[in-house]
Structure formats: structure tokens, C-alpha cells
Fold this sequence. Notes:
Blueprint (H helix, E strand, L loop, with lengths): L10 E4 L4 H13 L6 E4 L3 H9 L11 E4 L2 E4 H12 L14 H19 L19
Parallel strand pairs: 1-2
Antiparallel strand pairs: 1-3, 3-4
Amino acid sequence: MGTDIPEDAPIVLFDGVCNLCHGFVQFVVPRDTEGQFHFASLQSDVGQQLLADHGLEGHDLDSVVLIEGDDVYVKSGAVIRIARLLGGVYRLLGPCRYLPRRLRDWAYDLVAEHRYRLFGRKEQCMMPTGNVQERFLE
Length: 138
């Protein structure tokens, strides 16, 4: 797994034992044709260090976090920004950023609260394979 990433490369932190989160990462990877995104689980040492480095130590493990340089996006903001960076049809989610964050995050939290019951849970974090492996941080 990789540790040498470009300084401003977007890093997606996700719940490594959540099937929904795993599915989200599996959705992003093939659509990220430029290989710009790097990934780490929130539970990993590198994930915890990145959270601490950006003032999110003790962060709940119930949200996606996107770190892009000095900018940090969480919950719905992270999903919308990831969609915009993917480009193409996914940019259509961009205008959602104009909805009140409270409303967006309420919907996000509702899904997050029930994600294990609805989508299941893994016993351990996802282990990437193939050429994608170098985009996952140790």
C-alpha cells in the first residue's frame, strides 16, 4: 500500500468495516480515471493521524471525510465534493452544496445511523488489490 502521495491529492477517509462505505469506495475507484483520490480507513493509524492533523481527533467513525490540501469536508460536504472532483455526470450533485448543510447532513446522518443494519458490517477493513492498492495509505 502506498504512502507517497502528491501533496494536494484528495484523500478519502471512510469507515473500513462498513459495507456501504466499502461500496462507496468501490464506486469511486473505477470512476476516478485520473487516479487522483487516495484512501484510508478511519480506523487505521494513518486515518487517525490525518484526522488529528486536521483538528478532527476523536471524530466519529460514521462519516466520510475528504481531505484536500488544507481543506476538509465531512459528511454530505465530502460526498458532494468527491462527486464534483469525479466530474462528468457526477458534477450534477454540485448544486446540492447550496442546500442548507443542516438539511444535507440530517439526511446523511439518517443513513449513517442505520448503515450497519441496512448494509451490513465487515469483520475487518477492506484490503485493496491490484493497481488500486497503491492508492490506499498504510
